[in-house]
């Protein structure tokens, strides 16, 4: 296998609007625009992670039309032409298809890396190695659609899984597995089986493919969407987009296509699905607390807590353990770490009682 | 006993600078300037409680010179002449002596009520009844210095106590007790004895006396301080004040004087010595939480918590019980209710690490 030398593009899917990290994440400030770890946003970090691999003029950002300006502000090296503003949220398949149509128009012989904008991955160098191997594999295997799998570290029930078989070989020294099946979020028993069995990987929604292969796949398995976007003008996209089928890449393309391959990621990855996920991502400080955001934390007789605030706001913890404490200018959340996945329930209460805080 | 009809004055001691309610209370915003319960500050509520009993032109506020402007802003009915700005904090005796010298100059035949600015007392009508009885007693009993005692509701170790004997009679239908002894903060066993014995009352630092009796008492027992302030010009006070002995009224006057009498308060009184004190003062909401300040509280599976925030800041509690959660623009405190008296320890940490938050 050799790298054919296609131009390499990246598509950053930044259209998410989740509320699982409320009150930090809001309708107007979804997770990818938060500074959770370090001084830049997850979106910026997603681009920084590609440095040396994909140059900024070949990075496309797909985000909500409301967030185009913010994305431009954060990413001055990415030209305005490369930031696509979705007129409506239609899940990931239309997003990937629109970006593919755009890249096909500009650089049909290219290869693409498609990444969510709101993940934390470390170390970046290891991730780039995996991507390089995946790119090489995608370019050398006609028709291959490549995805990345995360080796499970615990029996997670919050992710879909990729079911694999024996490795079919390697690419640039990294093993490549055929994907036999996409598995929906399992129950706890099933997740435990998956963990022990060793044939299942977390599906992180990251893809590598040549533009040509992806276009073919979309044409075959997502024909209507592809036809609406392929060769369409900006205005045609704007008009067509809201009527496109809202479906994920997994369901709308990958589960239907054959020739799916997976490269494993054996290092830190998190989609930060809840505040408690930050515990695995952010090292504990001297007092054993995990400080997200850039705000100071002062703790006395307090450990195992996860905090978030901005640099002008201090969180002071006295005699409390294993809490999530999140401070924003107009709302504070306090909940036990092991209940942080229930923040959705709090958000549901807000829908009834305090819409302005969503 | 009959009311002699002296003009009645009130002296509001608003010089405290405590940090026990940090992060709401700060050097620049001590407790008396906080809106803890209802829409006005404790200082305003202290004045409002006297409505119908003392007219605003006879209310003197003694506060730190730095807080004079804020006191004027809050109390537009009190003239600027009636707000005395202490050039230095010297505990309560110099404060009471200065106010006495001022009242003696303006209205020597008057009677005074001296009250801390940072207590919560309800109902106001019952309190005014006690004050009326205390005033009548002080005016009809030559040489009497009168104080109010709070009937203990639990074996508190955080207060000084007044030790009494049998009631000597009544004033306007309220029993009057001789004070035999001022007792320093007791240990838990002693406090339990006091509670059971029925002869001890909490010392709330509230006093009623004629200006003439107080002046005599000060001249006798706090001679140096009195001589420095009696008849002094504003500039003389400013120069002398910082060198006055820093001592409380209890220690510098009451413990030395005879002829001390006490009227009991049998209703809600709190000096709000810690966040947890608000639990007894602020009724629980439907979810069983105690909301201080004017900020909204949204609770799910959360009860017995005490919260404080201002009206533009929502506190959201999910699955936590018996916490204190205080949000201010630059700092948030989270601690268990039963540890809230340790906020001082947090403040000590701040002295080392974040002076600007004090």
Structure description:
The structure is a homodimer of 358-residue chains. With 358 residues, the first copy, chain A, is an alpha/beta fold. The first copy, chain A, has two domains: 8-270, Spore Coat Polysaccharide Biosynthesis Protein SpsA, Chain A, CATH 3.90.550.10; 285-357, no CATH class. In chain A, 28% of the residues lie in helices and 27% in strands. Chain A has helices spanning 42-48, 68-74, 92-106, 124-140, 188-197, 211-221, 223-229, 234-240, 249-254, 278-281, 343-353; strands spanning 8-14, 59-64, 83-86, 111-116, 120-122, 145-150, 161-164, 169-171, 174-183, 200-210, 260-265, 268-270, 290-293, 297-300, 306-309, 314-318, 323-327, 331-336. A five-stranded mixed barrel of chain A has the order 6-10-7-9-11. In chain A, strand 17 (323-327) and strand 18 form a beta hairpin. The longest helix of chain A is centred in the middle third of the chain and has 17 residues, at 124-140. At the A-B interface, strand 16, strand 17, strand 18 and helix 11 of A face strand 16, strand 17, strand 18 and helix 11 of B. Strand 16 (314-318) of chain A pairs parallel with strand 18 of chain B.
**Mean of pLDDT of chain A:** 95
Flag low-confidence runs of chain A.
none
Q: How many individual helices of chain A?
A: 11
Biggest pleated-sheet summary of chain A: 5 strands, mixed, barrel
User: What is the class of the largest domain in chain A in the CATH system?
Assistant: Alpha Beta
What's the CATH H-level homologous superfamily of the largest domain in chain A? Spore Coat Polysaccharide Biosynthesis Protein SpsA, Chain A
Biggest contact: A-B, 35 and 35 residues
Determine the strand fraction of chain A and express it as a percent band.
Answer: 25-35%
